[in-house]
């Protein structure tokens, strides 16, 4: 899909000119692109196949889906793909991940995930465009750990792998804030830095060999060894799926939503 399908009727501009035309404040932090404006508002929608499938499959009611879409600022492309905007705790938009789903709410593997930054690069051919940096999905929902520590409070944040899982779990268990890494390969210690000062519960997907759980467990220990994590609570990696998922479920590599929905 070409970027013009998302951002219509925009002429060929330099990166800075494009930002001004869209009403964005574009900045470069440590050599990486971030956008300091509500770009997501232009595409906020529950019309994606994903949002409709979540309701049709019975995961959420229509009201819950609308609430979750506002919470996570979900967008929609002209072809029905959902846009998972990655906005950090300082309201900087790092990128937008575009994914396609089938009506049964499973991933449409005929369409590979792509990034808004890549589509914009393709459309406008920026020669010196800084590389987009990625952050945890839902990071804009995180309150400063330093402020909570001063008040003597600890909030609880739950981290899963898939954005879909975070969206659904946020309505099933609204007492927690749900974040997503966006993939097993995105489970990286540095991305947890903004969560300093919070209680974290990590929910790995499962697989026959337990590789996902091991990867998450190792990442948690790496985070705890960082100087910037000093004084923060220990990170708990939930063994729920490793202990209770069936052999068949592990073969399917289910996540926490699958497990709870199938009970």
Describe the fold and architecture:
With 263 residues, the protein is an alpha/beta fold. Helix content is 32%, strand content 16%. The protein contains ten helices and eleven strands. It has helices at 15-21, 49-56, 62-72, 116-124, 145-150, 163-172, 211-224, 240-244, 247-252, 256-262; strands at residues 26-29, 32-35, 75-76, 82-87, 93-99, 114-115, 131-132, 156-160, 177-180, 199-202, 236-237. Strands 3-4-5-6 form a four-stranded antiparallel β-sheet. Strands 9-8-10-11 form a four-stranded parallel β-sheet. The protein has a three-stranded mixed β-sheet with strand order 1-2-7. Helix 3 packs across helix 6 (163-172). The radius of gyration is 19 Å and the shape is globular. The termini are far apart.
Keywords, please?
globular, 263 residues, 11 strands, four-stranded antiparallel sheet, alpha/beta, single chain, disordered N terminus
Briefly say what this structure is.
This protein is α/β, with parallel strands linked by helices and 263 residues long. The protein is 32% helix and 16% strand. It is built from ten helices and eleven strands.
Q: Main sheet, how many strands, which sense, barrel?
A: 4 strands, antiparallel
Physical arrangement of strands within the biggest beta sheet: 3-4-5-6
Portion of residues in helices? 25-40%
**Number of beta-strand segments:** 11
What is the tally of helical segments?
A: 10
Q: Mean pLDDT score, rounded?
A: 83
Instruction: Measure the end-to-end span.
Output: 38 Å
Shape: globular
Class of secondary structure makeup: alpha/beta
**Strand percentage:** 15-25%
Would you list the SSEs in sequence order as H and E? Answer: HEEHHEEEEHEHEHEEHEHHH
Q: Which value, in Å, is the CA radius of gyration?
A: 19 Å
